[in-house]
Amino acid sequence: MNQDVDVAVVGAGFSGLYLLHRLRQAGLSAIGLETGDDVGGTWYWNRYPGARCDVPTTDYTFSFDPALEDAWTWSEKYATQPEILAYLRFVADRYDLRRSIRFATTVTTATWDDTAQRWQLGTSNGAPVSCRFYVMASGCLSAPKPPEIEGARDFAGPTYLTSRWPHEGVDFTGKRVAVIGTGSSGIQAIPLIAQQASHLTVFQRTPNFSIPALNGPAPAAAVATLERDRAGYRERARWSPVGMPRQRPAEYSWQLSEAERRERFERGWMSGELGGLSTAWADAVSDVDGNALLSEMIRGKIRDTVTDPATAEALCPQDHPFGSKRPCLDTGYYDTYNRPNVKLVDLRREPIATITRSGIRTAKADYDVDAIVFATGFDAMTGAMLAVHPMTGRGGIKLDDAWADGPKTYLGLTVAGFPNLFLVTGPGSPSVLANMAVAIEQHVDWIVDRITGMREAGQTTIEATETAQAGWSRHVADCTGLTLHRLANTWYTGANMRGKARGVMPYTGGLGAYRGICDEVVSRDMLGFRLG
Ligand code: FAD
User: Are 433 and 323 in contact (CB under 8 A)?
Assistant: First the structure.
């Protein structure tokens, strides 16, 4: 027996929760299907030591209901994973959302039935679901990248994936620990693991730029701005390039003296926000030359902090401009390499040959350890969507075939050949390049407004045309061509996954501009969509 609903929502993180709330408000029947056994998504799974947001929580928060904002106060500028999870649980309880969610349930297959004009979803638990609309709120950083290292299964001790961390926590006291990976998760976890472990060996393939978070209570200025005019601030955030209203500098690097650049850099470095450096001067993250000045100043900070010159040099990113790969925020990351119990292994000089029973063997040495932490990241943006396999659209077309040369979408929200399928923060939308709380609210509002609009118009299907999708893909690529993202091999481009098609996946044109385009599509009678 099927469970019949108007809308099926895959995932119960920020996106799934807000979707269920809005769908219910609109009088539609909806079910949430979630692999985890509770709400939270990212913040349910990523429980590694040091896990926090890197967008200030005064911004990384729902804004759809002022009463919700009144009811919750964040305790820190960058909240911890437990606090963000508590917030999402609070949201689920406040709007009574759990009763609409089937937990411990993975959507395994999805098939469009052109006769019934409905999706049929196979699930790992309970009845299959039949729905008119199928929304993938499955997360763009939710499918862990498996450690692709020979011998990973041979290791005799425990191994941990940062994105699947044990709920009861891990005690590394007295243990020799290896951390593989120095992306955002590794950089957050390494200082805390180093404090506990008897010895920590960090295996680094690509160094990342990281700046000090300078965490603490929510900054008084941010709180005062919100208290003065919260609605106005939230509206400015919605139309800003990255989902946070920030002052953009008028002066280009070449219009400033060296002393002025230094002064702005130091201010940005001490701002405790990623945006502090990217707005140091107008061409800081948009032009190679303006960026080179900034990147070199950050490398100077690394060299000033890390006492061993060889380690400092290995930690200095040289292969990508600052901002072209997601920069990190840290608490004591570079200082950690001055501890006597911490060693950095530069995998560009000595690649891992294999994992053995007792540890990690590189081209140069054997490193015996008691535990291995894989901070190896995600199959970003497409991983969770393609894990529903097969996902079959009109005429038997499969999503993995449609995306064989890289993901193609219209507005990052829909896929030609897949009627009534919506993606939240999908490839071709700003998603990970913006404050995702704001990006998610925009997507959810747009999707639910389309579904309710169709109901009022007596329409049952919506599908992007191939022409619109091709045009959007070209626009996404054109925007990328104007940014420095094209110069880096990153998870934005699929370069972290063996065999994944390459191309910058998020839309780099900015969230505010994107919102305007989505609104314009609607005002021009759903330009690029076929409605039936
Ligand atoms: P998720 O939170 O990823 O939730 C998706 C859910 O879908 C998951 O629970 C998953 O189990 C479920 N799911 C997937 N596939 C299936 C399936 N087939 N069947 C059933 N369930 C399925 N963003 C920011 O803007 N600012 C930050 O500071 C920030 N910090 C981050 C820190 C970390 C460590 C990580 C990993 C991400 C961070 N992000 C940040 C991005 C973050 O993912 C988003 O902000 C946001 O939480 C995404 O919410 P979501 O609901 O779209 O997806």
Answer: no
Atom of ligand 1 nearest to the CA of 54: 28
The contacts of residue 231 (CB under 8 Å, 6+ apart) are 66
Ligand 1 centroid to residue 428 C-alpha, Å: 17
ipTM of this model? Answer: 0.99
**CA–CA dist 350, 357 (Å, integer):** 19
For 279-321, write each residue's pLDDT tens digit. 999 999 999 999 999 999 999 999 999 999 999 999 999 999 9
Q: CA-CA distance, 406 to 495, in Å (whole number)?
A: 12
Q: Which long-range contacts (CB under 8 A, 24 or more apart) does 310-317 make?
A: 311/337, 311/344, 312/337, 314/204, 314/207, 314/344, 314/346, 314/349, 315/204, 315/207, 315/344, 316/207, 317/206, 317/207, 317/208, 317/209
- In DSSP terms, which residues pair with 118 in a beta bridge? 113
Low-confidence ranges of the chain (pLDDT < 70): none
What distance in Å separates the CA atoms of residue 132 and residue 8, rounded to the nearest whole number?
8
Tokens matching residue 163: 């994105």
Q: Ligand 1: which atom is nearest the Cα of residue 142?
A: 3
The SS3 assignment for 98 reads: helix
Distance CA 511, CA 311 (A): 38
Q: How far is CA 27 from CA 6, 32, 155, 460, in A?
A: 10, 15, 53, 16
Task: Count other C-beta atoms under 10 Å from residue 482's C-beta.
Answer: 11
Q: Which of 123, 141, 185 to mutate to test the pocket of ligand 1 (most atoms within 8 A of CB)?
A: 141
Q: What is the pTM of this model?
A: 0.97
DSSP three-state, residue 421 = strand
pLDDT in tens, 33-55: 999 999 999 999 999 999 999 99
Contact 44, 472 (CB under 8 A): no
Residue 314: the pLDDT is 98
Helix axis angle for 288-305 and 258-269, nearest 10°, is: 60
Distance 281 CA to ligand 1 centre (A): 32
> Ligand 1 centre and the CA of 173: distance in Å?
30
Which amino acids bring their CB within 6 angstroms of ligand 1?
Answer: 10-16, 33-36, 41-42, 44, 46, 51, 53-55, 60, 106-107, 137-139, 141-142, 185, 384, 387-388, 424-425, 435-436, 440
